[in-house]
Design goal:
With 119 residues, the protein is mainly β. The protein is 0% helix and 49% strand. The strands form two sheets. It has a six-stranded mixed sheet with strand order 2-10-9-4-5-6, with no helix packed on it. A four-stranded antiparallel sheet has the order 1-3-8-7, with no helix packed on it. Strand 7 and strand 8 form a beta hairpin.
Length: 119
């Protein structure tokens, strides 16, 4: 089973930037897509962004569109999330997951990385 490890979280002020990384334990060339989700205290996990692994098509939630950029480096088995113009509402634990085939639920969740944005 592929294991995912997120990193790059931290404490920043509103308006600043962070770059999250998600490294897979083995090659993910057969994966349909990988995505970022987040979960704030007392709330359900929500979709943030995703990328089709082979063709690179990207998807974003309305709340982050224009501020966040998802990308991948297939040679490094790594997924990235560049987060710019951060807001306090972006505070959450960020998780990456895999969608092995189209229509499958996301799985193989990592342990998450905390992002805290102060006002």
């Amino acid at each position: 089973q592929v294991h995912l490890v997120e990193s790059g979280g931290g404490l920043v002020q509103a308006g600043e930037s962070l770059r999250l990384s998600c490294v897979a334990s083995e090659r993910t060339f057969s994966t349909f897509a990988m995505g970022w989700f987040r979960q704030a205290p007392g709330e359900e996990r929500e979709f943030v962004a995703a990328i089709r692994w082979t063709e690179g098509t990207t998807y974003y939630s309305n709340s982050v569109k224009g501020r966040f950029t998802v990308s991948r480096d297939a040679a490094k088995n790594t997924l990235y999330l560049q987060m710019d113009k951060l807001k306090p509402d972006d505070t959450a634990v960020y998780y990456c997951g895999m969608q092995v085939r189209v229509g499958d639920p996301y799985s193989n969740w990592g342990q998450g990385t905390q992002v805290t944005v102060s006002s």
